[in-house]
Write a structure and sequence with these properties.
Blueprint (H helix, E strand, L loop, with lengths): L13 E2 L5 E2 L3 E3 L15 H12 L4 E3 L3 E2 L19 H12 L4 E7 L14 E2 L16 E2 L2 H21 L3 E6 L4 H6 L14 H4 L1 H14 L4 E7 L10 H14 L3 E5 L24 H8 L6 E4 L5 H9 L5 E4 L9 H7 L20 H20 L10 H18 L2
Parallel strand pairs: 3-4, 3-13, 4-6, 5-6, 6-9, 7-8, 9-10, 10-11, 11-12, 12-13
Antiparallel strand pairs: 1-2
Helix pairs in contact: 1-2, 1-11, 2-3, 3-6, 11-12
Length: 412
C-alpha cells in the first residue's frame, strides 16, 4: 500500500499520457443504457442523457458498451458502430457530453458467448462452452476461428477510429465482466490449444493485439483505456495474480488509463451481488489496486462500491488510485459529481434497486434486474429529472420484458 501522500483532491485535473487533461478525478463508469435506435445509432434520448451528465460536472464520461458487431448484442437496443452511416448522430452524442468540459470516451465491446441477440444467431466464444447462467446456457457458442479473430481485430479498430472521427476523445476496450475479451482471459471459458489459449500469455494475446491495433488507428494523442477484471471471482477463472500480469502488459503496450472492476455473469461482483469477503473497505476491488500500484505507475481508475468522499480523498491522496469511478450513483443523481466537488454530499446514498428473494442461482437474475432498473432511470434523467428513485421490481421486470420482446421482433 502506498504511504506517500500527495496534494490530489477530487477537483485536481489529471493529464493522461496521451496529453488529454481530465478536469477532475470523478468519472462516470459505463452502464447498460439500452437507448440505441433500431438501426444501432444513438437515440436523441441517449444524447440528452449525456448532456445531463455533462452538465453535472463529471470529469470523464465513459459510455455504455457500444457494439462492434451488429450480429452480437449484449442487451436490447445497444448502440452499434461498424461504419460511418450514422456518424452525424455519433458526433451529436460526443458533443452533448463534452459541451461543459467533460472528456467523452466510447466503450467498445463484443459480448461473445453471453450475447442476448439476435435471438436467431448462435453466439460465439473463444471455445464452444456454455456459460453457466440461466438463459445464457440454452445456446452453445461456436468457437471462433482464426479468420473470425482477425475480423474481430478489424472491427475493434474500425469502431475506435470512427469514434475518434466522430469527436470522442478516445475509446475504452472492454475486457471485463465476462464479455468476449474477458472470456479469452478466463481459463474456464477459453480452453483453446492454439496461439490464443493454453497458457496465460496466449490467453491475453488477443487483447494485446487489439490494443496495439487500436492505438495504431487512433494515434498517440487519443485516449486509450482498457477495463479489466481484478479477478473473475470464480474458482479456476482469471486470478488476481494473472490479472496483474495482464495489467502490466497493458501498461507496457502504452494504454492511458486502466479501469479496474471484477466479476462476470456467473459471479457478478461488479454489481455488489458477489463480493470479496476479505474486503475491509468500501470499494470492492481496492486491495487489487494496492497490489498493482506497487509494480505500476500507469493511471488507474477504480470502480465499484465507492460511496464516501473520505474514501475517495484517501485513495487519491495515497496514490493508489488516480480516478474515482462511479456508476449507479449517476443513475439516480446526474449532478452527483458537482455535489461531491462542492463537498455537499457525504456519503453517497442510493435508493435500493429491486431484488428477488435470495435463492440458489438467483444472483445473476438480480444483477440483470439492477441493470434494467437503471435503464428505466436513464429515461427520466434524459427527460430532465434531477433525482430519480426508480420503479419497483414488478414494473422493472415488465419494462425489461417489453424491451427484450420489441428488440427480438425488430432486430434487423
Amino acid at each position: 500500500m502506498p504511504t506517500k501522500t500527495r496534494t490530489v483532491t477530487l477537483g485536481t485535473p489529471l493529464t493522461l499520457p496521451c496529453g488529454i487533461t481530465v478536469p477532475n478525478r470523478i468519472a462516470k463508469s459505463a452502464m447498460s443504457e439500452q437507448l440505441g435506435n433500431v438501426d444501432g445509432s444513438p437515440s436523441q434520448t441517449l444524447t440528452r442523457l449525456y448532456s445531463a451528465w455533462g452538465r453535472g460536472g463529471t470529469g470523464l464520461l465513459i459510455t455504455g458498451n457500444v457494439m462492434v458487431d451488429r450480429r452480437a448484442y449484449v442487451e436490447p437496443r445497444n448502440v452499434t458502430l461498424e461504419d460511418d452511416r450514422h456518424l452525424e448522430a455519433f458526433t451529436n452524442w460526443a458533443r452533448a457530453g463534452a459541451r461543459q468540459g467533460s472528456v467523452m470516451v466510447m466503450q467498445i465491446n463484443h459480448p461473445g458467448r453471453v450475447a442476448v441477440g439476435p435471438l436467431y444467431r448462435r453466439p460465439v466464444g473463444p471455445s464452444a462452452l456454455r456459460p453457466q447462467v440461466p438463459g445464457y446456457n440454452l445456446r452453445k457458442p461456436r468457437e471462433l476461428s482464426l479468420d473470425d479473430i482477425a475480423d474481430l481485430r478489424r472491427r475493434y479498430t474500425c469502431a475506435a477510429e470512427l469514434a475518434v472521427a466522430a469527436g470522442f476523445s478516445g475509446v475504452q476496450v472492454h475486457a471485463a465482466h465476462g464479455y468476449l475479451l474477458s472470456q479469452f482471459l478466463n481459463p474456464l471459458a477459453n480452453t483453446r490449444t492454439d496461439s490464443y489459449g493454453g497458457d496465460p500469455q496466449n490467453r491475453r494475446r488477443l487483447l494485446l493485439e487489439i490494443v496495439a491495433a487500436v492505438r495504431a488507428a487512433i494515434g498517440p494523442n487519443a485516449l486509450l483505456s482498457v477495463k479489466l477484471n481484478s479477478s473473475d471471482f470464480q474458482r479456476g477463472g482469471l486470478s488476481v495474480d494473472e490479472s496483474i500480469d495482464v495489467a502490466l502488459a497493458l501498461e507496457e503496450a502504452g494504454i492511458d488509463l486502466l479501469e479496474v472492476s471484477g466479476g462476470n455473469y456467473e459471479a457478478p461482483a461488479m454489481t455488489g451481488v458477489v463480493t470479496d469477503r476479505t474486503r475491509a473497505r468500501e470499494a470492492y476491488f481496492h486491495d487489487y489496486v494496492d497490489r498493482l500500484r506497487l509494480r505500476s505507475t500507469m493511471p488507474i481508475m477504480l470502480t465499484g462500491g465507492i460511496r464516501t468522499a473520505d474514501f475517495m480523498s484517501e485513495a487519491l491522496a495515497d496514490g493508489s488510485v488516480d480516478v474515482i469511478g462511479l456508476a449507479r450513483p449517476f443513475a439516480v443523481r446526474p449532478d452527483i459529481a458537482a455535489q461531491l466537488l462542492a463537498g455537499d454530499l457525504e456519503p453517497v446514498t442510493l435508493p435500493s434497486a429491486p431484488t428477488l428473494p435470495n435463492l440458489p442461482g438467483i444472483a445473476p437474475v438480480n444483477s440483470y434486474l439492477q441493470l434494467a432498473w437503471h435503464a428505466q432511470n436513464f429515461r427520466a434523467i434524459a427527460d430532465g429529472a434531477n433525482s430519480v428513485r426508480g420503479p419497483g421490481a414488478a414494473r422493472t421486470l415488465l419494462a425489461a420484458a417489453a424491451n427484450v420482446t420489441v428488440h427480438a421482433l425488430t432486430q434487423p
